[in-house]
Amino acid sequence: MLIYLLTAAFIYYTIWILIMPFVDGMNPTHKFFLDREWAIVVPVSLMLFGICLVGTFISLVMIKSEKNTRKT
């Protein structure tokens, strides 16, 4: 199920970024897509969130391994 959701999101984003800028602004398909500024804000926000998660995970692993080293 997750693969279908991710595929749909990829197709939506690809159409939004690569095709919609070349479609006339009066075309009714524009109402299915967000403003162009969100095309940058959403991926950057997701990337920053992912980097924070990875950094937190690495920090916790380093702290835990340091505690295990001190006990020994």
Overall description:
With 72 residues, the chain is mostly helical. The chain folds into 2 domains: 1-33; 35-72. It is 72% helix and 0% strand. It has helices at residues 2-19, 38-71. The longest helix is centred in the last third of the chain and has 34 residues, at 38-71. The radius of gyration is 20 Å and the shape is elongated. The N and C termini lie far apart (46 Å). The model has no long low-confidence stretch (mean pLDDT 93). It is a multi-pass membrane protein. Its main location: endoplasmic reticulum. Keywords: Endoplasmic reticulum, Glycosyltransferase, Membrane, Transferase, Transmembrane, Transmembrane helix. It holds the Pfam family DPM2. GO terms for molecular function: enzyme regulator activity; glycosyltransferase activity.
Average pLDDT taken over every residue: 93
Q: What is the straight-line distance between the termini?
A: 46 Å
| Low-pLDDT runs | none
User: Total number of helical segments?
Assistant: 2
Q: What is the structural class? A: mainly alpha
Shape: elongated
Taken as a percent bin, the fraction of beta residues is: under 5%
Largest sheet: none
Integer tally of domains:
2
Radius of gyration: 20 Å
Overall strand count? 0
Helix content: over 70%
The SSE order reads: HH
GO molecular function: enzyme regulator activity; glycosyltransferase activity
InterPro entries: DPM2 (IPR009914)
Keywords: Endoplasmic reticulum, Glycosyltransferase, Membrane, Transferase, Transmembrane, Transmembrane helix
Transmembrane segments: 5-23, 38-63
